[in-house]
Task: structure prediction
Amino acid sequence: MLCKLTRWLISRQVDLGKAVPRFALRHAARCGACRAYARFAASLPSRFAGERAAFLAAAPNFPLNEAKRAEDGAVRGKREILPRRLALRPFPAAAAAVLIVAGVLVLSQVVLREAGPSPQDEAAALAALKTVTAAPEEFQGMVAEAESPLAKERRILERSVASAVEYLQTRLNIKFERKHEPKTL
Amino acid sequence: MVDPGPIATKTDEELAREARAGSRRSFEELAHRYKRRLFVYLRPRLGSDQDAEDMVQETFLKLFRNIRSYDPAFQFSTWLYTSANRLAISSYRKKRVASGRLDVEAAGALADPEAGAGGEAGSAGIWDAARALGRNQYRVLWLRYGEDMAIEDIAVSLGKSRLAVRLLLHRARKGLMKRVCPAPAMATATETAAVKETPLG
Result:
Protein backbone atom coordinates (compact mmCIF):
# COMPACT_ATOMS: atom_id res chain seq x y z
CA MET A 1 0.00 0.00 0.00
CA LEU A 2 2.75 2.40 0.94
CA CYS A 3 4.65 1.35 -2.20
CA LYS A 4 1.68 2.35 -4.38
CA LEU A 5 1.37 5.70 -2.68
CA THR A 6 5.10 6.33 -2.84
CA ARG A 7 5.24 5.54 -6.56
CA TRP A 8 2.26 7.79 -7.24
CA LEU A 9 4.06 10.58 -5.38
CA ILE A 10 7.22 9.90 -7.37
CA SER A 11 5.18 10.20 -10.58
CA ARG A 12 3.73 13.44 -9.28
CA GLN A 13 7.23 14.76 -8.72
CA VAL A 14 8.24 13.78 -12.27
CA ASP A 15 5.11 15.31 -13.87
CA LEU A 16 4.51 18.40 -11.78
CA GLY A 17 7.83 18.98 -10.02
CA LYS A 18 6.25 18.78 -6.58
CA ALA A 19 8.51 17.50 -3.82
CA VAL A 20 8.02 13.99 -2.50
CA PRO A 21 6.80 14.08 1.14
CA ARG A 22 9.18 13.00 3.89
CA PHE A 23 7.30 9.80 4.77
CA ALA A 24 7.56 8.65 1.15
CA LEU A 25 11.27 9.42 1.11
CA ARG A 26 11.74 7.40 4.28
CA HIS A 27 9.84 4.53 2.70
CA ALA A 28 11.85 4.73 -0.52
CA ALA A 29 15.07 4.62 1.50
CA ARG A 30 13.96 1.22 2.82
CA CYS A 31 12.18 -0.13 -0.29
CA GLY A 32 14.44 -1.08 -3.19
CA ALA A 33 11.53 -1.50 -5.65
CA CYS A 34 10.32 2.05 -5.06
CA ARG A 35 13.88 3.35 -5.48
CA ALA A 36 14.13 1.40 -8.71
CA TYR A 37 10.86 2.93 -9.89
CA ALA A 38 12.13 6.40 -9.04
CA ARG A 39 15.31 5.76 -10.98
CA PHE A 40 13.39 4.33 -13.91
CA ALA A 41 10.95 7.27 -14.01
CA ALA A 42 13.82 9.74 -13.88
CA SER A 43 15.63 7.98 -16.72
CA LEU A 44 12.63 7.89 -19.06
CA PRO A 45 13.04 11.31 -20.73
CA SER A 46 16.58 10.60 -21.83
CA ARG A 47 15.77 7.04 -22.90
CA PHE A 48 12.76 8.10 -24.94
CA ALA A 49 14.65 11.00 -26.46
CA GLY A 50 17.59 8.75 -27.34
CA GLU A 51 15.45 6.25 -29.22
CA ARG A 52 13.04 8.73 -30.76
CA ALA A 53 14.98 9.31 -33.97
CA ALA A 54 15.33 5.59 -34.69
CA PHE A 55 11.67 5.03 -33.90
CA LEU A 56 10.59 7.75 -36.31
CA ALA A 57 12.99 6.54 -38.98
CA ALA A 58 11.24 3.17 -38.91
CA ALA A 59 7.97 4.80 -39.95
CA PRO A 60 7.23 4.78 -43.70
CA ASN A 61 8.17 7.95 -45.54
CA PHE A 62 4.98 8.39 -47.52
CA PRO A 63 4.43 11.40 -49.78
CA LEU A 64 1.97 14.04 -48.68
CA ASN A 65 -0.83 14.89 -51.05
CA GLU A 66 0.08 18.51 -51.69
CA ALA A 67 -1.86 18.69 -54.95
CA LYS A 68 -5.12 18.02 -53.16
CA ARG A 69 -4.43 20.80 -50.68
CA ALA A 70 -3.51 23.18 -53.49
CA GLU A 71 -6.73 22.35 -55.31
CA ASP A 72 -8.71 22.70 -52.11
CA GLY A 73 -7.05 26.01 -51.36
CA ALA A 74 -7.88 27.40 -54.81
CA VAL A 75 -11.54 26.43 -54.50
CA ARG A 76 -11.71 27.81 -50.99
CA GLY A 77 -10.09 31.07 -52.06
CA LYS A 78 -12.73 31.65 -54.75
CA ARG A 79 -15.58 30.64 -52.51
CA GLU A 80 -14.54 32.77 -49.55
CA ILE A 81 -13.93 36.13 -51.21
CA LEU A 82 -17.29 37.71 -50.43
CA PRO A 83 -18.01 36.18 -47.00
CA ARG A 84 -14.51 36.95 -45.75
CA ARG A 85 -14.73 40.58 -46.80
CA LEU A 86 -17.88 40.92 -44.79
CA ALA A 87 -16.55 38.93 -41.90
CA LEU A 88 -13.40 41.00 -41.63
CA ARG A 89 -15.27 44.36 -41.64
CA PRO A 90 -18.28 43.88 -39.39
CA PHE A 91 -18.82 47.55 -38.49
CA PRO A 92 -18.84 48.95 -42.02
CA ALA A 93 -21.08 46.08 -43.06
CA ALA A 94 -23.50 46.82 -40.21
CA ALA A 95 -23.48 50.56 -41.01
CA ALA A 96 -24.24 49.84 -44.65
CA ALA A 97 -27.11 47.58 -43.62
CA VAL A 98 -28.56 50.31 -41.38
CA LEU A 99 -28.29 52.85 -44.19
CA ILE A 100 -30.07 50.53 -46.60
CA VAL A 101 -32.90 49.90 -44.12
CA ALA A 102 -33.26 53.64 -43.44
CA GLY A 103 -33.36 54.36 -47.17
CA VAL A 104 -36.05 51.77 -47.72
CA LEU A 105 -38.13 53.25 -44.91
CA VAL A 106 -37.85 56.81 -46.26
CA LEU A 107 -38.72 55.68 -49.77
CA SER A 108 -41.72 53.75 -48.53
CA GLN A 109 -42.95 56.86 -46.67
CA VAL A 110 -42.57 59.04 -49.76
CA VAL A 111 -43.93 56.66 -52.35
CA LEU A 112 -46.69 54.99 -50.39
CA ARG A 113 -48.03 58.14 -48.72
CA GLU A 114 -51.76 58.92 -49.55
CA ALA A 115 -52.32 61.30 -52.44
CA GLY A 116 -53.38 64.91 -51.55
CA PRO A 117 -56.92 66.39 -52.16
CA SER A 118 -58.00 66.87 -55.72
CA PRO A 119 -58.46 70.49 -57.10
CA GLN A 120 -62.25 70.08 -56.94
CA ASP A 121 -62.12 69.12 -53.26
CA GLU A 122 -59.86 72.07 -52.53
CA ALA A 123 -62.27 74.47 -54.29
CA ALA A 124 -65.30 73.09 -52.38
CA ALA A 125 -63.50 73.42 -49.05
CA LEU A 126 -62.53 77.03 -49.81
CA ALA A 127 -66.11 77.91 -50.77
CA ALA A 128 -67.45 76.44 -47.53
CA LEU A 129 -64.91 78.44 -45.55
CA LYS A 130 -65.91 81.62 -47.34
CA THR A 131 -69.62 81.10 -46.55
CA VAL A 132 -68.78 80.69 -42.88
CA THR A 133 -66.65 83.83 -42.69
CA ALA A 134 -69.15 85.80 -44.75
CA ALA A 135 -72.02 85.23 -42.27
CA PRO A 136 -71.02 86.86 -38.96
CA GLU A 137 -74.64 87.63 -38.04
CA GLU A 138 -75.54 84.01 -37.98
CA PHE A 139 -72.55 83.50 -35.81
CA GLN A 140 -73.77 86.18 -33.42
CA GLY A 141 -77.21 84.62 -33.29
CA MET A 142 -75.73 81.28 -32.57
CA VAL A 143 -73.66 82.83 -29.83
CA ALA A 144 -76.71 84.57 -28.38
CA GLU A 145 -78.59 81.32 -28.37
CA ALA A 146 -75.76 79.67 -26.64
CA GLU A 147 -75.97 81.94 -23.53
CA SER A 148 -75.44 80.47 -20.18
CA PRO A 149 -78.29 78.76 -18.26
CA LEU A 150 -77.71 81.07 -15.26
CA ALA A 151 -78.55 84.23 -17.22
CA LYS A 152 -81.62 82.55 -18.64
CA GLU A 153 -82.79 81.61 -15.15
CA ARG A 154 -82.24 85.13 -13.94
CA ARG A 155 -84.29 86.61 -16.76
CA ILE A 156 -87.19 84.27 -16.03
CA LEU A 157 -87.11 85.20 -12.36
CA GLU A 158 -87.04 88.92 -13.18
CA ARG A 159 -89.99 88.53 -15.45
CA SER A 160 -92.06 86.67 -12.87
CA VAL A 161 -91.14 89.20 -10.15
CA ALA A 162 -92.15 92.07 -12.45
CA SER A 163 -95.54 90.49 -13.19
CA ALA A 164 -96.10 89.86 -9.48
CA VAL A 165 -95.29 93.50 -8.70
CA GLU A 166 -97.67 94.69 -11.40
CA TYR A 167 -100.43 92.48 -10.03
CA LEU A 168 -99.97 93.71 -6.49
CA GLN A 169 -99.88 97.39 -7.58
CA THR A 170 -103.12 96.96 -9.43
CA ARG A 171 -104.85 94.95 -6.72
CA LEU A 172 -103.73 96.97 -3.72
CA ASN A 173 -103.49 100.30 -5.48
CA ILE A 174 -99.99 100.93 -4.25
CA LYS A 175 -96.71 101.60 -5.99
CA PHE A 176 -93.47 99.66 -5.53
CA GLU A 177 -90.17 101.36 -6.10
CA ARG A 178 -86.81 99.70 -6.66
CA LYS A 179 -84.23 100.92 -4.14
CA HIS A 180 -81.13 99.57 -5.83
CA GLU A 181 -80.22 98.78 -9.35
CA PRO A 182 -79.96 95.02 -10.00
CA LYS A 183 -76.43 93.64 -9.80
CA THR A 184 -74.98 92.39 -12.95
CA LEU A 185 -73.66 88.83 -13.16
CA MET B 1 4.33 39.78 -45.81
CA VAL B 2 6.17 36.50 -45.32
CA ASP B 3 9.73 36.63 -44.05
CA PRO B 4 12.05 35.07 -46.65
CA GLY B 5 14.49 33.74 -43.96
CA PRO B 6 15.74 30.13 -43.91
CA ILE B 7 12.64 28.09 -43.37
CA ALA B 8 14.29 25.08 -41.72
CA THR B 9 15.51 27.12 -38.75
CA LYS B 10 12.10 28.52 -37.90
CA THR B 11 10.02 27.25 -35.03
CA ASP B 12 6.71 25.50 -35.58
CA GLU B 13 4.83 28.51 -34.28
CA GLU B 14 6.64 30.89 -36.65
CA LEU B 15 5.86 28.63 -39.57
CA ALA B 16 2.24 28.34 -38.47
CA ARG B 17 1.95 32.13 -38.30
CA GLU B 18 3.35 32.40 -41.81
CA ALA B 19 1.04 29.68 -43.05
CA ARG B 20 -1.81 31.57 -41.48
CA ALA B 21 -0.75 34.64 -43.42
CA GLY B 22 -0.92 32.62 -46.63
CA SER B 23 2.48 30.96 -47.04
CA ARG B 24 1.98 27.52 -48.53
CA ARG B 25 5.70 26.80 -48.29
CA SER B 26 5.61 27.24 -44.52
CA PHE B 27 2.68 24.88 -44.27
CA GLU B 28 4.47 22.27 -46.37
CA GLU B 29 7.47 22.55 -44.05
CA LEU B 30 5.22 21.98 -41.06
CA ALA B 31 3.60 18.99 -42.74
CA HIS B 32 7.05 17.61 -43.58
CA ARG B 33 8.16 17.98 -39.97
CA TYR B 34 5.13 16.31 -38.48
CA LYS B 35 4.02 13.64 -40.92
CA ARG B 36 6.06 10.80 -39.43
CA ARG B 37 5.43 11.95 -35.88
CA LEU B 38 1.72 11.99 -36.55
CA PHE B 39 1.94 8.61 -38.24
CA VAL B 40 3.59 6.88 -35.29
CA TYR B 41 1.09 8.57 -32.99
CA LEU B 42 -1.98 7.48 -34.93
CA ARG B 43 -0.82 4.08 -36.11
CA PRO B 44 -1.66 1.99 -33.02
CA ARG B 45 -5.28 3.14 -32.94
CA LEU B 46 -5.94 2.52 -36.64
CA GLY B 47 -6.23 -0.74 -38.49
CA SER B 48 -3.31 -0.52 -40.87
CA ASP B 49 -0.43 1.59 -42.16
CA GLN B 50 -2.65 2.67 -45.02
CA ASP B 51 -5.36 3.89 -42.64
CA ALA B 52 -2.77 5.78 -40.62
CA GLU B 53 -1.36 7.42 -43.77
CA ASP B 54 -4.87 8.41 -44.86
CA MET B 55 -5.53 9.88 -41.46
CA VAL B 56 -2.31 11.88 -41.59
CA GLN B 57 -3.29 13.24 -45.01
CA GLU B 58 -6.76 14.03 -43.75
CA THR B 59 -5.38 15.81 -40.69
CA PHE B 60 -3.11 18.05 -42.73
CA LEU B 61 -5.92 18.81 -45.16
CA LYS B 62 -8.12 19.82 -42.24
CA LEU B 63 -5.35 21.97 -40.75
CA PHE B 64 -4.78 23.62 -44.11
CA ARG B 65 -8.47 24.46 -44.38
CA ASN B 66 -8.59 25.86 -40.86
CA ILE B 67 -5.14 27.44 -40.67
CA ARG B 68 -6.69 30.89 -40.25
CA SER B 69 -8.29 29.79 -37.00
CA TYR B 70 -4.90 28.87 -35.50
CA ASP B 71 -4.18 30.94 -32.39
CA PRO B 72 -0.43 31.72 -32.18
CA ALA B 73 -0.74 31.95 -28.39
CA PHE B 74 -0.84 28.13 -28.31
CA GLN B 75 1.69 25.57 -29.42
CA PHE B 76 1.22 24.30 -32.92
CA SER B 77 1.72 20.69 -31.80
CA THR B 78 -1.20 20.98 -29.35
CA TRP B 79 -3.47 22.18 -32.13
CA LEU B 80 -2.23 19.49 -34.51
CA TYR B 81 -2.70 16.59 -32.11
CA THR B 82 -6.09 17.88 -30.97
CA SER B 83 -7.28 17.92 -34.57
CA ALA B 84 -5.77 14.49 -35.24
CA ASN B 85 -7.51 13.02 -32.20
CA ARG B 86 -10.87 14.42 -33.21
CA LEU B 87 -10.50 13.16 -36.74
CA ALA B 88 -9.48 9.71 -35.54
CA ILE B 89 -12.50 9.53 -33.24
CA SER B 90 -14.79 10.74 -36.01
CA SER B 91 -13.35 8.21 -38.46
CA TYR B 92 -13.77 5.41 -35.94
CA ARG B 93 -17.42 6.33 -35.41
CA LYS B 94 -18.09 6.53 -39.14
CA LYS B 95 -16.56 3.11 -39.64
CA ARG B 96 -18.65 1.68 -36.84
CA VAL B 97 -21.84 3.16 -38.25
CA ALA B 98 -21.04 2.09 -41.81
CA SER B 99 -20.26 -1.53 -41.02
CA GLY B 100 -22.45 -2.00 -37.97
CA ARG B 101 -19.41 -3.26 -36.17
CA LEU B 102 -15.67 -3.13 -36.62
CA ASP B 103 -14.39 -5.64 -39.10
CA VAL B 104 -12.36 -8.48 -37.72
CA GLU B 105 -9.06 -7.31 -39.15
CA ALA B 106 -9.34 -3.81 -37.75
CA ALA B 107 -10.54 -5.08 -34.40
CA GLY B 108 -7.60 -7.47 -34.25
CA ALA B 109 -5.17 -4.69 -35.03
CA LEU B 110 -6.72 -2.47 -32.39
CA ALA B 111 -6.59 -5.20 -29.81
CA ASP B 112 -2.96 -5.94 -30.59
CA PRO B 113 -1.11 -2.67 -30.85
CA GLU B 114 2.20 -4.41 -31.51
CA ALA B 115 0.95 -5.73 -34.84
CA GLY B 116 2.12 -3.77 -37.90
CA ALA B 117 3.50 -0.92 -35.90
CA GLY B 118 5.63 0.43 -38.68
CA GLY B 119 8.86 -0.92 -37.20
CA GLU B 120 10.31 -4.38 -36.97
CA ALA B 121 8.76 -6.61 -34.34
CA GLY B 122 12.10 -7.55 -32.83
CA SER B 123 13.54 -4.05 -32.48
CA ALA B 124 12.60 -4.08 -28.74
CA GLY B 125 13.20 -0.40 -28.22
CA ILE B 126 11.53 1.50 -25.43
CA TRP B 127 9.10 3.04 -27.90
CA ASP B 128 8.06 -0.39 -29.12
CA ALA B 129 7.50 -1.39 -25.51
CA ALA B 130 5.45 1.75 -25.03
CA ARG B 131 3.36 0.95 -28.08
CA ALA B 132 2.62 -2.47 -26.66
CA LEU B 133 1.07 -0.95 -23.53
CA GLY B 134 -2.18 0.06 -25.13
CA ARG B 135 -3.50 2.97 -27.13
CA ASN B 136 -4.20 5.47 -24.38
CA GLN B 137 -0.99 4.88 -22.46
CA TYR B 138 1.05 4.98 -25.63
CA ARG B 139 -0.61 8.25 -26.68
CA VAL B 140 0.21 10.03 -23.43
CA LEU B 141 3.75 8.66 -23.46
CA TRP B 142 4.26 9.92 -27.02
CA LEU B 143 2.89 13.35 -26.26
CA ARG B 144 4.86 13.62 -23.00
CA TYR B 145 8.21 12.21 -24.09
CA GLY B 146 8.02 12.23 -27.88
CA GLU B 147 6.62 15.74 -28.20
CA ASP B 148 7.74 17.07 -24.80
CA MET B 149 4.29 18.47 -24.12
CA ALA B 150 3.13 19.72 -20.72
CA ILE B 151 0.42 17.87 -18.83
CA GLU B 152 -2.05 20.72 -19.53
CA ASP B 153 -1.42 20.55 -23.28
CA ILE B 154 -1.80 16.78 -23.31
CA ALA B 155 -5.09 17.12 -21.46
CA VAL B 156 -6.31 19.62 -24.05
CA SER B 157 -5.20 17.44 -26.96
CA LEU B 158 -6.85 14.31 -25.61
CA GLY B 159 -9.92 16.03 -24.19
CA LYS B 160 -9.21 14.59 -20.74
CA SER B 161 -8.65 16.10 -17.32
CA ARG B 162 -5.12 16.70 -16.06
CA LEU B 163 -5.60 14.09 -13.36
CA ALA B 164 -6.67 11.52 -15.96
CA VAL B 165 -3.54 12.27 -17.97
CA ARG B 166 -1.33 11.90 -14.89
CA LEU B 167 -3.00 8.62 -14.03
CA LEU B 168 -2.42 7.31 -17.54
CA LEU B 169 1.22 8.37 -17.40
CA HIS B 170 1.70 6.74 -14.00
CA ARG B 171 0.20 3.47 -15.17
CA ALA B 172 2.20 3.64 -18.37
CA ARG B 173 5.44 4.06 -16.42
CA LYS B 174 4.62 1.11 -14.19
CA GLY B 175 3.66 -1.03 -17.18
CA LEU B 176 6.74 0.02 -19.05
CA MET B 177 8.96 -0.82 -16.13
CA LYS B 178 7.55 -4.32 -16.03
CA ARG B 179 8.22 -4.76 -19.72
CA VAL B 180 11.61 -3.09 -19.93
CA CYS B 181 12.96 -4.32 -16.59
CA PRO B 182 11.79 -7.93 -16.17
CA ALA B 183 11.95 -9.70 -12.83
CA PRO B 184 15.69 -10.63 -12.72
CA ALA B 185 16.62 -7.14 -13.81
CA MET B 186 14.25 -5.75 -11.23
CA ALA B 187 15.97 -7.85 -8.58
CA THR B 188 19.33 -6.50 -9.68
CA ALA B 189 17.97 -2.99 -9.70
CA THR B 190 16.63 -3.54 -6.21
CA GLU B 191 19.96 -4.83 -4.98
CA THR B 192 21.94 -2.02 -6.52
CA ALA B 193 19.40 0.51 -5.32
CA ALA B 194 20.31 -0.40 -1.79
CA VAL B 195 23.90 0.61 -2.50
CA LYS B 196 23.49 3.56 -4.86
CA GLU B 197 22.25 6.93 -3.85
CA THR B 198 18.57 7.62 -4.40
CA PRO B 199 17.58 10.25 -7.02
CA LEU B 200 14.76 11.33 -4.77
CA GLY B 201 14.71 14.53 -2.82
User: Anything to note?
Assistant: Residues 32-57 of chain A form the longest helix (26 residues).
